[in-house]
Amino acid sequence: MKVAVMGYGTVGSGVVEVLEKHAPSIPKKIAGETLEVKRILDLRDFPGDPHQELFTKDFNDILNDDEIRIVAETMGGVNPAFDFTAKLLKAGKSVVSSNKELVAQKGLELLNLAKENGVNYLFEASVGGGIPIIRPLNQCLAANNIEGLAGILNGTTNFILTMMIEKGMPFDEALRLAQDKGYAEKDPTADIEGHDACRKVCILASLAFGKHVYPSQVDTQGISNITLEDVSYVASADGVIKLLGQIKHISDDRIAAFVSPAVVYHGSQLASVNDVFNAILVRGDAVGDVCFYGPGAGKMPTASAVVADVIDCAKHIKRRKYFGWGAGDEDYVVDYKANIKMPFYVRAKASETEAKAKFTTVKFLSRKGQPSDEIAFITDAMTENELTEKLEGMDVINIIKVTDY
After folding, report:
1. Is the Cβ–Cβ distance between 89 and 119 less than 8 Å?
2. What is the pLDDT of the chain when averaged over all its residues?
3. C-alpha neighbours within 13 Å on the C-beta side of residue 257
4. Residue 170 to residue 174: CA distance in whole angstroms
5. Of all residues in the chain, what percent carry a pLDDT higher than 90?
6. Where would you tag: which of 122, 146, 176, 387 has the fewest CB atoms within 10 A of its CB?
């Protein structure tokens, strides 16, 4: 069976490598069928590459080739990836993708096109890199009503926070180190401001609860306002700070979804996830808490997930998998600030007396070198709107959610 790859960057080149390396064993998994890369689409030149004869700069070479039955889209971005993918699905070719931005924005349309044309659109690699989560949510946990999910979904921010926690490294210095190691882009905005994690939350929420969630519906905060002082205060409460994507079931037609820094107490499976690793905790009504952990990015882990989808498409080449979700609406994702109660970490220029006057119950924290006019504390559970009202008039430095995962 002939396969094409669109995008020969880090992931795309890894897909070709995995398909070639595992060529002897793949037929055992798909009833003797072989998988052969026939075309690689990329606008760049790769002089000296061993696959030189496979390259094309013309998308139509893939679209119009009837031998090509499955296409791996590893281009990134919405355009032209959406246009190409839509045309391939209409032409009766199955497509697999690692493109989280495309799936988050256009997943519903592409899934519908796949259904209309009797082919498959799969995207295991779009969330968690090499961590299997899409397929387990769709199949292994199908007997559960999902109560919520929480995930460390971005390796760059997790590495930065790990350096701050374990090495006492300031945010800016930890970011530079992440860039030096190739974990962060020259423009790290998508990572440190939470946009990357937001897209993955959209995909997980759509699959777990059955209606499409768009990035514009997910309140998103990054980690650029986290300081070593916050890290130190939270450590005194036996916790760490992680950037979490969180999704909570409200009712049959309402969920809450948000991305933000969060205090995670030691004892949680998420607290010990360090460096560039990711983890996704799923809470089901029957199974309880299940945690999926592993490398959330990288050439070979992500390529592994893409090729797994290629093999799955090859197994289902003459039939569709029941996979996807329905349309959402504007009111589907509720304002978590008014609907979700949780404790909060607060740091402020104030006295303990002021905090006690505003809150029934607070747990005060401490750190080395704590100024006499600065306090940090953890509140009892309340909505963020209620917290805002209580903090009126207080000189607040930072607020961080406290998770119950």
Report:
1. yes
2. 96
3. 27
4. 6
5. 95
6. 176
The catalytic site residues sit at 200
pLDDT the model gives residue 296: 85
Coil, helix or strand at residue 397: strand
The residues that bridge with 60 in the sheet, in sequence order, are none
Report pLDDT for 298: 86
- Enumerate the β-bridge partners of residue 37: 3
- The CA distances from residue 70 to 52, 123, 343, in Å, are 20, 13, 48
142-170 burial string, b = 16+ CB within 10 Å, else e?
A: eebebebbbbbbbbbbbbbbbbbbeeebe
- pLDDT for the residue numbered 98: 96
Beta-bridge partner residues of 295: 277
Do 58 and 86 meet the contact criterion of CB atoms below 8 Å apart? no
Do 211 and 246 contact (CB within 8 A), yes or no? no
Residue with tokens 């509140």: 379
Task: Kindly report the number of other CB atoms within 10 A of residue 213's CB atom.
Answer: 27
Residue type, 222: G
pLDDT digits (tens, 9 = 90+) for 29-49: 998 999 999 999 999 999 999
Separate counts of helices (H) and strands (E) for the chain:
14, 16
Q: Is the pLDDT of residue 373 over 90?
A: yes
Buried b (16+ CB within 10 A) or exposed e, 22-35: eeeebeeebeeeeb
Angle at 70 between CA 68 and CA 73, to 5 degrees: 115
What pLDDT score does 31 carry?
Answer: 87
Tokens, residue 170:
């300031």
pLDDT bin (cut points 50, 70, 90) of residue 320 is confident
Which residues lie below 8 Å from residue 41, measured CB to CB, with a gap of 6+? 4, 5, 6, 7, 8, 55, 56, 57, 58, 59, 61, 62
Spell out the SS3 assignment of 104-147.
HHHHHHHHHHHHHCCCCEECHHHCCCCCCCHHHHHHHCCCCCEE
Strand partners, 294: 278
For the chain, the first-to-last Cα distance in angstroms comes to: 44
Which amino acid, 311?
I
Residues 269-297, mean pLDDT to the nearest whole number: 95
